[in-house]
Amino acid sequence: MSSGVCRRVLQSAGSPPAASAGSWSWSWSMSSCCRHRPGLRSEPRRGLSASGRGTMNVFNREMKKRQKNWAASLQDGHQYDYLRNEVGSRVADRVYDIARTFPLALDIGGGKSHIAEHLSKVQYKYFILRLPCISKGSADFVERLFLTDVSENSLKRRRASEIPTHGVLADEEFLPFKENTFDLVVSSLSLHWINDLPGALRQIHQVLKPDGVFIGAMVGGETLYELRCSLQLAETEREGGFSPHVSPYTAVTDLGNLLGQAGFTMLTVDIDEVQVHYPGITEVMADLQGMGESNCAWNRRAMLHRDTILAAAAIYKEMYASEDGSIPATFDILYMIGWKPHESQARPARRGSANVSFGDLSKISQPTDTNKS
């Protein structure tokens, strides 16, 4: 979609969830596997071969920088932060699950401090109230936080936080920090635009101190499958073929392998499904642009024809509309936790060191007869 068309769509779109008087609604659910989606074949899945060699060049990073700068310069840009705010709070919750203090932390792609605002002292006290079994001395707290982002405008508009923060203009693919620097690295909704994801994970592993932890969230899986299928069907009908309009995403089944190849241990990977309901397809596209999440793949088309957009809107409503007439946009959020190895961490026992046979397990449930005469 051309920038001119997108700009006109954005100006004519309604307000996002925070000010829509019920036009938008949220739906969250947990999922443990990827689902088969109706419609045409999906976009090429992003990933590497099993060997892990080679670097993909899928995204135009300079275009993504311009998109994020433009989105951050909007006067009403805060209205498009609802997804980042929610995911940022869930990343912060995972930080609170680790009972330790982090003297120095790094937020990759932190932008407007969507995670930092949830790591404040107020949130810390609320966490203690929710879990009284955890003492104040054992719960975690981030003392200092560095924010990196490719967008200068995003860093300028970062929100105030009780935690001392320092903004650093840097590309997520090239971290300008020394090895063994940070106790904690977090990232929220930024890694899915990186070309060399395995290389970025290795850099995160390098800047972490031993026994440091990485907690991240990225868009992946079957995200925006409704929009993708609708555009594919509309283009096939009106133009005799289709081009990719939704960028490829990392599959949840690949994420654990990528973390392991980067050197992380004690891995945890899970997925949340987020559904946001909109009045129509133009509002979906307008909000994606307002978030700075427009497609920046090298093979994207420069524009969409008017007839194709109208056909896609009709297909979207016909295939996916809810009973109230709204249409859902699904986001699969992949969460990951990985630790940098340290001698103090638990390790699996040496192979062959077991002193109990599996054959003896059946005897455990057998009652012992102590009344023999």
From TrEMBL:
One of its GO terms (molecular function) is S-adenosylmethionine-dependent methyltransferase activity. One of its GO terms (biological process) is methylation. Residues 363-373 have a biased composition (Polar residues). It is found in: Mitochondrion. The keyword Oxidoreductase applies. One of its GO terms (cellular component) is mitochondrion. The keyword Mitochondrion applies. Transmembrane segments: none annotated. Residues 346-373 are annotated as: Disordered. Its main location: mitochondrion. Residues 141-215 form the Methyltransferase type domain. Keywords: Methyltransferase, Mitochondrion, Oxidoreductase, Transferase, Transit peptide. It comes from the Eukaryota. InterPro entries: Malonyl-ACP_OMT, Methyltransf_11, SAM-dependent_MTases_sf. Belongs to the methyltransferase superfamily. This is Arginine-hydroxylase NDUFAF5, mitochondrial. The gene is ndufaf5.
